[in-house]
Write a structure and sequence with these properties.
Layout (H helix, E strand, L loop, with lengths): L9 H6 L54 H4 L1 E3 L11 H17 L15 H7 L7 H8 E6 L3 E9 L1 E5 L8 E4 L6 E4 L11 E7 L2 E3 L4 H5 L9 E5 L2 H10 L1 E5 L5 E9 L7 H7 L8 H10 L1 H8 L6 E6 L17 E3 L10 E6 L6 E7 L9 E8 L1 H8 L2 E11 L10
Parallel strand pairs: 3-16, 4-10, 13-15
Antiparallel strand pairs: 1-2, 2-17, 3-17, 4-9, 5-9, 6-7, 7-8, 10-11, 11-12, 13-16, 14-15, 14-17
Length: about 425
């Protein structure tokens, strides 16, 4: 999700996983946090919309051998976008987000194979002084649309959670939020074999062996206790679980202050989406964040075991300054940033969504990635913080079509022979 250095979409991530282990400490019955924490019981009712159909794709005479990137999968030239980009706040926010992305965008190697760094020079130069009141005109003047693959989009949502927390352990705040342990080691497997390039694992050294790091159930049961790794303490294990799925969030402190925390690594264990697990077992029906949370609260003992079936555990650091940060290393922008798979979408590129739900329709900027956000035309929309963001993101599941906006002229290199 902000994740998102791990990134992952909340609903999709929750629906994709599972795990095993001990019991998360129940509430101590201590005083509630001074500042209220959103209950998250109600998802925002979606506004239906009619999506624009995906463009017809001409079957190649010889399918590409490598379809692991957008260039290999193939692109189809899109329509003129001047009439497709709605004016208004989303376009203005997207222009602001695009500006932030430009310094990295122009020097970053595009994994998708769609663009070169120099392709973005003209649009980035123009964006620096372009008036936000005519943001939609900026995008239509400097970009052309392409459709990657079949163009059929699936969009979920993420947000920046706000939960009760404390910098010190005290009555009502008993759930530890850990820093990254110094014995958690990242291994780039490509250094050992060309066949493993791009792959990595995490674990720890035990004697002369490299072994998997502690899973969630072990950490929750106290395997890291006593090592001085506690960054802060959460009031509610369920809220903290959802914050881990998002990858960053805000702690509402007892004195009325706010502490922002962000992703600083993960234990290397596979993620298991408990939403799908619970739905398969008949424990919930719809599978939204609100449905999952309601069950976990109504059944605390069973819920604790279910949460531990997700063996993945996220570590945090305190964030200062603007944020939260996305995969480009710049702050993500509410209602303008989407997470995408960089093998299919150039990070920093504009994306035009047309979906069966009205709220996410319009122009977005791909500034983030996510563990569950894989493949062409798969996006996770960022909605910011607060009750509205939580309500929309928690139930976001929209389908339709997507167009990727590339600097004018760059798409000509991608035409099929």
């Amino acid at each position: 999700m902000i994740h998102r250095k791990s990134g992952a979409a909340l609903l999709a991530a929750l629906m994709l996983s599972a795990c095993a282990g001990g019991v998360i400490p129940p509430s101590t019955g201590g005083p509630a946090p001074t500042r209220p924490v959103p209950s998250g019981d109600t998802a925002t009712r979606p506004t239906p919309a009619t999506p624009r159909p995906a463009l017809p794709v001409e079957a190649p005479t010889e399918p590409a051998l490598d379809q692991s990137t957008a260039a290999g999968l193939g692109v189809t030239p899109g329509p003129d976008i001047a009439s497709l980009i709605p004016s208004g706040e989303r376009a203005r926010a997207a222009l602001q987000a695009f500006r932030l992305s430009c310094p990295t965008l122009m020097r970053r190697t595009d994994q998708s194979g769609l663009t070169r760094g120099s392709d973005w020079n003209s649009s980035c130069a123009a964006a620096s002084s372009w008036p936000e009141a005519s943001a939609s005109e900026f995008f239509s003047r400097y970009f052309e649309a392409v459709q990657v693959g079949e163009g059929k989009a699936f969009v979920t949502g993420y947000y920046e959670p706000e939960i009760g927390g404390s910098r010190t352990r005290q009555l009502g705040y008993q759930v530890p939020i850990y820093r990254r342990p110094n014995d958690l080691i990242d291994v780039d497997l490509g250094q050992f074999s060309d066949a493993l390039k791009g792959k990595s694992i995490r674990g720890k050294v035990n004697g002369s062996k490299f072994v998997p790091y502690d899973e969630r159930s072990q950490i929750v049961s106290g395997s890291l206790a006593g090592r001085g790794l506690e960054l802060a303490w959460a009031a509610d294990p369920v809220e903290f679980f959802f914050l881990q799925v998002q990858g960053s969030g805000r702690l509402n402190l007892p004195d009325g202050g706010v502490m922002r925390i962000g992703y600083d690594g993960q234990n290397g264990r596979d993620y298991t989406g408990i939403g799908k697990l619970m739905k398969d077992r008949g424990l919930i029906q719809a599978g939204s964040m609100q449905d999952i949370m309601q069950y976990l609260r109504a059944n605390p003992a069973e819920g604790a075991v279910i949460m531990n079936e997700n063996k993945s555990f996220v570590f945090f650091r305190e964030l200062t300054g603007a944020g939260p940060l996305g995969a480009l290393g710049v702050p993500v922008t509410p209602e303008a940033t989407v997470a995408a798979d960089p093998k299919f979408i150039p990070l920093g590129a504009p994306v035009l969504l047309s979906l069966d739900r009205a709220e996410p329709n319009g122009i977005w900027i791909a500034q983030d990635t996510g563990g569950a956000i894989k493949g062409a035309n798969r996006f996770d929309s960022f909605w910011g913080a607060g009750a509205r963001a939580r309500g929309i993101a928690g139930g976001m599941s929209a389908r339709g079509s997507a167009l990727i906006l590339l600097p004018i002229g760059s798409a000509a290199r991608l035409s099929r022979p």
